[in-house]
Amino acid sequence: MADNATSRGKNYSIIAVLGMFSFLTALSGSSTNLAIPKIAIDMDISSSMATWIVQIGLITTAILLVMFGHIGDILSKNVVFLAGGIGFLIGSAITGFAPNFPIILFGRVIQAIGSAMIMANSMGIVTQYFPDKRRAEALAVISMFISVGSISGPGIGGLIISASSWRWIYWINVPLGIVILWLGFKFLPIPKESWAHVRQVTQGANWTGQNLFTLGIIIFFLSGSFFQAGRSKLLTGIIFFAVGGVIALYAFIQDDKANLPWIAPEVIHNRGFITSITALALVMLVNSVSNILLPFYFQSYNGMSAFYSGLIIMLQSVTMLCTTPFAGYLADRINRELMTVVGLLILMISQVGYAFFPNNLDMWKIIPPIILNGIGMAIFLSPNNALTMGLVDKSLSGIAGSLNSFARTLGMTIGISFGSSLLFFQLPGVKRVTASVGLPFIHAFANVFWTATVISAVALVIVLVRYLGSRRKPAAAKESA
Fold first, then answer.
1. Cα(31)–Cα(21) distance, rounded to whole angstroms?
2. Helices of type H across 229-305
3. Is 391 helix (H, G, I), strand (E, B) or coil?
4. 348, 363 in Cβ contact below 8 A?
5. What is the pLDDT of residues 36-62, one digit of tens each?
6. Its pTM surpasses 0.70
7. Phi and psi dihedrals of 291, rounded to 5?
């Protein structure tokens, strides 16, 4: 009994460390989204250019997630996770002290490398320490930390930006992160590995595939800058989009045939796993559209302060925080596939609500879609994460977790790039969103969310097919018996 109590106590401590770092990264991410209009003014750059502060971090994270997941599997998930915490703090400090826009981007890249190391191994660490019957609940706890971070980001970030400089949204990460790192080194066991062993296990890795993937992702997302330039750069944008996509896709094919692939064949050929992360990518794409566009709607177009804008936007995360515990509890006890269908249906309805946002600040039309978005996300995420990690062997939990995080990050990156590109493509010649843009902004804003509604419907079809398939399996098993 004492051993069980000690083991449970250790597991709770590990969840606390994972959760607190998840909180910190979510806090930084949501604060950055809110700060974009202010940073654009401070650095004298266009609104569309300022979105790269978010995009470059997400692109870097997406590029490195699979690699760090693989390294975590062959070396130590704990070591990679804690090293990521150190990188995240260094990047936060550089961004906070950055004197110009290029240094901001550099700091965000360093911060994103750390985030990739953290995200790639968090779910693998949970799988390592928690059995399947308790895994969804453990993942739900981490989701709650993420929700609290997302809540605190707009609230704390809005207060900081209104009262002081946006730089404090990065500086605040440093003292908080040092405390979490101290706890991490205390509770996460670190195996002793020689540099010779590290070089040995990484030397034969498929670096050709990693380099191809990096090149493809960079070209793919550079297309967004051409789309934002308007119709004159449309063809160039399409070419970059297609070429980058093909190279990134080929990198997966090349990796599958490599002697030492980054992604284990058992994972990449697991149809159920691929279905789960595809649905996740589409959901995060849709959710990120509102994350990047709402600050422009509230602050730039309607003149609302960053503080009040943050309070309204944080309603989504408050709703997620309140709904997630119930979603995690139910996901361990009822049909997880059905829950993902319900969550996506609610998310799709919320996108329709965003498309009907008014020209003025009519809160009766503005608040319901934000709350529905939070409910839909909470009901979808916990059961889908549990389904995803339950489909692979524990020995592959690191790469499976990193692929899950990759799908999440890729969806967010595409969503932010897609949302901002489609918005500014419809507003040629607009350097910075203001009230003077008028109704063209509202029309462009609505068109983006009608497109997000269609993408939500595609994701809904995917999870509905999965749910119907899960219902047929027990019936087929009974017939064969």
1. 15
2. 234-257, 265-268, 271-295
3. coil
4. no
5. 888 888 888 887 788 888 888 878 887
6. yes
7. -60, -40
- Nearest CA among 403, 275, 253 for reference residue 336: 275
Tokens 């460390």 belong to 17
Residue with structure tokens 């700091």? 107
For the chain, give the mean pLDDT.
81
Q: Give the Å distances, CA to CA, from 361 to 285, 358, 366.
A: 26, 7, 7
Rg (CA), the chain: 22
Structure tokens at 11: 């597991």
Q: 262-290, pLDDT tens digit by residue?
A: 677 777 778 888 888 889 999 999 998 98
Amino acid identity at 369: P
Angle between helices 2-43 and 132-163 (to 10 degrees): 30
- What is the CA 273 to chain-centroid distance, rounded? 18
Q: Give the residue from 54, 28, 27, 36 showing the smallest Cα distance to 299.
A: 36
Hey, what are 435's tokens? 């009230």
DSSP 424: H
Residue 230 φ/ψ region, left for φ over 0, alpha for ψ in the -120 to 50 degree band, beta for the rest: left
